[in-house]
Specification:
By secondary structure, the chain is an alpha/beta fold. The protein contains six helices and 28 strands. Helix content is 20%, strand content 32%. The protein has a seven-stranded mixed beta sheet with strand order 5-4-1-6-11-8-12, with helices on both faces. A five-stranded parallel beta sheet has the order 14-17-20-23-26, with no helix packed on it. Strands 15-18-21-24-27 form a five-stranded parallel beta sheet, with helices on one face.
């Protein structure tokens, strides 16, 4: 099984953090967003993943090495492809066409999800992961009949379907997908909004009689904006937190749930609820709730809520909500 993860976008809605860290590499309670996605597949698929193909922008060799190392933790080969221009979802997947051999899963690294038990895809040519929603007009939805997906509608005004497409797809024959993507890109078959669309390739496969089945998602968490990143992190803390009794601290009050990474220093603080203190961060004489303090950051004499502090950033003497990028300083002088 091949897993293709397009992640070349700059994640502008997650700035300032995505200025220096690609969105899928941002942490969710100590674990990279993209690694949580891969873990979900490793735990829910019938077959193991033997290759993970990452489609990147110009993120540099450090990011590429991190991704290859992460793939290795799942006993998979890590392959790197590049998307130099943002030309649409079909183009992003097309960039990894050399890995489209045999069974393929495409997963866009924008959301976390969970399933209720293992996902079975053996009785279909393809599958699309869906989540039933009430605000169907905000999503692309799948039309279904007798347990098969028959088509798609983008942001319908009428309730033709409440099955939102979350951006995860399975193809039994990667070669068939590659052929449709190649046709779209090489013949410049752009949508009205000027992009190459993955749904156009899927529509072509449906027209050729391919059987598409739904894969039902139990939980679907968005990470596309800073607030979504915070909310998703706090949702994850409900099941993946550090027990208060295991938090190393000096003179602190801990309100669960929290996550505290290895080597974090907490002194004379009130931490939580819904607080993430990543590894190596130092928090002194402060209150932190509903916030993320990233690796190696320093927070002193502050009271932060609904905030995010970047890697190696410094915040001193601040009260309220703020979002500080990596290596930035608030309330102190260099």
């Amino acid at each position: 099984m091949k897993l293709i993860i397009p992640m070349a976008g700059r994640g502008t809605r997650l700035r300032p953090h995505s200025h220096t860290t690609p969105k899928p590499l941002l942490p969710i309670a100590g674990t990279m967003m993209v690694e949580r996605i891969v873990r979900t597949f490793s735990e829910s698929l019938e077959k193991p993943i033997d290759e993970i193909a990452f489609v990147l922008g110009d993120f540099g060799t450090d990011v590429e090495n991190q991704l290859r190392d992460m793939a290795g933790r799942f006993n998979a080969k890590g392959s790197i492809y590049y998307q130099q221009q943002a030309l649409g979802t079909a183009h992003a997947v097309y960039c990894a066409r050399e890995s489209m051999q045999g069974e393929v899963i495409v997963a866009f690294a924008d959301t976390l999800f969970s399933t209720n038990g293992p996902v079975k895809v053996s009785d279909a040519d393809a599958a699309i992961w869906l989540k039933e929603v009430e605000n169907y007009s905000s999503f692309g939805v799948a039309l279904m009949e007798n347990g098969r997906i028959t088509g798609f509608v983008e942001k319908p005004k009428d309730p033709v379907s409440k099955h939102a497409i979350i951006g995860v797809y399975y193809f039994k024959e990667g070669e068939a997908l590659r052929a449709e993507l190649t046709n779209i890109v090489e013949n410049d078959l752009k949508s009205p909004r000027g992009e190459y669309e993955l749904t156009d390739a899927i529509e072509a496969l449906l027209a050729k009689g391919k059987v598409f089945r739904p894969a039902t998602v139990q939980e679907w968490l968005d990470c596309g904006t800073i607030q979504n990143w915070l909310d998703t992190t706090f949702e994850v803390l409900k099941t993946d937190a550090t027990p208060a009794a295991e938090v190393a601290h000096s003179g602190c009050t801990i309100h669960e749930p929290v996550y505290v990474g290895q080597g974090a220093i907490l002194e004379n603080c009130e931490i939580g609820p819904n607080a993430v203190i990543e590894s190596g961060a130092v928090v002194r004489n402060s209150s932190i709730k509903s916030s993320i303090i990233n690796k190696n950051a320093l927070v002193e004499n502050a009271a932060l809520s609904n905030s995010s502090v970047g890697v190696s950033a410094v915040v001193k003497g601040y009260t309220g909500s703020l979002h500080v990028g990596d290596h930035s300083q608030v309330g102190t002088h260099s």
